[in-house]
């Protein structure tokens, strides 16, 4: 079997049943501008640690899937030119052809689960793109979450997407969605998307309890999404968000940007079009998610 190679620290923590949190690498390589992205990769690991868990940033280096990168590995993810973006379906070619790449939510969820890691933190999930009636672009994140036993802490799905359509797809795929201290699904850069969420939890221990109930219940091995909104004080101004996003969607259309390139294109457009304000909101969301994921992993491994 093709092994996911853990770092020494991650291997020790998993063997001892201590809390581990998987961190995604595409957000570092393709979602954030250099040089800020390396600082963020290091900072997220620190946040997970201070919440009492061991961080395991996931990526494929020279064809080897890894859970837990050293400083050099993080630097490669942040700076290597031409680094691939790997969803689940890209993992086999990357391994066989000895290619390096950062993993998306789809690729990371699969590798984390294979490594025995149950909790994962990211920014915003991929989903159904706007205009899906003509262009059938639906992120592989959704399909993977419908067949992977993992808990993903995120600030909802990226607001560049069709959020109601994405929530519908998550329902069809049996993915459990809970709001953390909210009755509304978060809007990634925005505190709320305006869409309701059926379940609300108040504590990390409640999330761990739902994970245990998932296992006791059996059935399809689906994910748990813990949707954790960016605080109102840190969100992007909603009017600015709507205006620049409309421009970004128009630019993508005019330039014919599609496929894997569309998400990074729109995120970068927003960073430039908001003078960096969208970047700050994105970072505030990811930091909060890393912290909460650490707490959930700690509660899960304490069995409280
Ligand atoms: N969260 C962020 N920034 C990102 C992503 C998530 O804050 O860049 C990445 C994730 O890796 C997610 C991917 O899986 O965007 C979705 O890409 P696509 O729409 O091509 O599936
Ligand atoms: Mn896509």
Automatic annotation (TrEMBL):
Cofactor: Mn(2+)
Co-factor note (free text): Binds 1 Mn(2+) ion per subunit.
Residues where Mn(2+) binds: 137
Active site feature: 24 (proton donor), 158 (nucleophile)
EC top class, as a word: lyase
Molecular function GO labels: hydrolase activity, acting on glycosyl bonds
Keywords, sorted A to Z: Glycosidase, Hydrolase, Lyase, Manganese, Metal-binding
Superkingdom in the source lineage: Bacteria
Catalysed reactions, semicolon-separated: D-ribose 5-phosphate + uracil = psi-UMP + H2O
Role, per record: Catalyzes the reversible cleavage of pseudouridine 5'-phosphate (PsiMP) to ribose 5-phosphate and uracil. Functions biologically in the cleavage direction, as part of a pseudouridine degradation pathway.
Protein family (similarity comment): Belongs to the pseudouridine-5'-phosphate glycosidase family.
Protein name: Pseudouridine-5'-phosphate glycosidase
Lineage of producing organism: Bacteria, Bacillati, Actinomycetota, Actinomycetes, Streptosporangiales
Originating gene: psuG
């Amino acid at each position: 079997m093709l092994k996911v190679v853990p770092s020494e620290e991650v291997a020790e923590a998993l063997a001892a049943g201590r809390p581990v949190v998987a961190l995604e690498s595409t957000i570092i390589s393709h979602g954030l501008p250099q040089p800020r992205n390396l600082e963020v990769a290091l900072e997220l690991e620190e946040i997970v640690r201070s919440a009492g868990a061991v961080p395991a940033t996931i990526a494929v280096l020279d064809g080897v899937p890894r859970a837990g990168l050293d400083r050099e590995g993080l630097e490669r993810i942040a700076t290597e030119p031409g680094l691939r973006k790997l969803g689940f379906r890209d993992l086999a070619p990357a391994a066989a052809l000895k290619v390096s790449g950062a993993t998306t939510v789809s690729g990371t969820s699969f590798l984390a689960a294979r490594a025995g890691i149950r909790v994962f933190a990211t920014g915003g999930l991929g989903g159904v793109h706007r205009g899906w009636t003509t262009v059938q672009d639906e992120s592989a994140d959704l399909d993977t979450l419908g067949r992977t036993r993992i808990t993903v802490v995120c600030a909802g799905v990226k607001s560049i997407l069709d959020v109601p359509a994405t929530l519908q797809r998550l329902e069809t795929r049996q993915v459990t969605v809970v709001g953390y201290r909210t009755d509304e699904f978060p809007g990634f850069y925005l505190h709320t998307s305006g869409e309701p969420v059926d379940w609300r939890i108040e504590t990390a221990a409640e999330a761990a309890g739902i994970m245990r109930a998932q296992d006791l219940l059996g059935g399809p091995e689906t994910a748990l999404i813990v949707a954790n909104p960016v605080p109102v004080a840190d969100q992007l101004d909603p009017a600015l968000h709507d205006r620049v996003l409309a421009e970004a969607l128009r630019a993508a259309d005019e330039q014919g940007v599609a496929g894997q390139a569309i998400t990074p294109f729109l995120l970068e457009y927003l960073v430039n079009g908001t003078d960096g304000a969208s970047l700050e909101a994105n970072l505030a969301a990811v930091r909060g998610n890393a912290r909460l994921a650490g707490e959930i992993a700690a509660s899960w491994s304490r069995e409280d």
